[in-house]
Design brief:
Elements (H helix, E strand, L loop, with lengths): L4 E7 L2 H12 L11 E7 L2 E7 L9 E4 L3 H11 L8 E2 L5 E7 L5 E7 L2 H12 L5
Parallel strand pairs: 1-3, 4-7
Antiparallel strand pairs: 2-3, 5-6, 6-7
C-alpha cells in the first residue's frame, strides 16, 4: 500500500532555489532537515523536495492543481519573472493546463478542473469541508 509521495527537483544553489519555491508555493518550507535541502508538504502526504545539485535534464513536468490557472499564471509571471505560458485544453480532457520552467530548467506546470462541481469534489475529498 502506498500512503505517501515525494517528488524532488534539484537547483544549482539552495538559497536561491528555496526563495524561488517559497514564492511559487506561497509559503515557507515545512521542513529543512539538513543543509542543501528544503521540503514542502503540498497536500497531506505529498511532499515537494528541493535539493541542491545538478538538475535532471528533461524531467517533469510536475503539475500542481490550482483553483484559477489564469490568476496563478499572472502571479508567477509577475512575481517570478516567468515567461508567459500558454494554457491548453482539449474537449476530451477534464482540465486545462500549462507548463513552465524554473530557473534551473525543472519543468513545472499548473492545471485546473474545467467542471466546478468536479473541482469542488476534489477539494472536499482532499481537505474535508473546506469551502472552495
Amino acid at each position: 500500500m502506498i500512503y505517501e509521495m515525494t517528488i524532488q527537483v534539484r537547483v544549482a544553489e539552495i538559497s536561491e532555489g528555496q526563495k524561488w519555491y517559497e514564492t511559487l508555493l506561497n509559503k515557507k518550507p515545512d521542513s529543512i532537515p539538513h543543509e542543501g535541502f528544503a521540503e514542502w508538504e503540498l497536500i497531506t502526504g505529498c511532499w515537494l523536495q528541493v535539493a541542491e545539485g545538478v538538475p535532471t535534464d528533461g524531467s517533469g513536468p510536475i503539475r500542481l492543481g490550482v483553483m484559477d490557472i489564469e490568476k496563478e499564471r499572472n502571479r508567477i509571471v509577475k512575481e517570478l519573472n516567468i515567461e508567459p505560458f500558454e494554457i491548453f485544453s482539449r474537449e476530451e480532457v477534464p482540465v486545462k493546463w500549462g507548463t513552465f520552467c524554473d530557473p534551473w530548467g525543472n519543468r513545472l506546470g499548473f492545471f485546473e478542473y474545467l467542471n466546478m462541481n468536479e473541482k469542488e469534489a476534489q477539494v472536499r475529498k482532499i481537505f474535508g469541508g473546506l469551502e472552495v
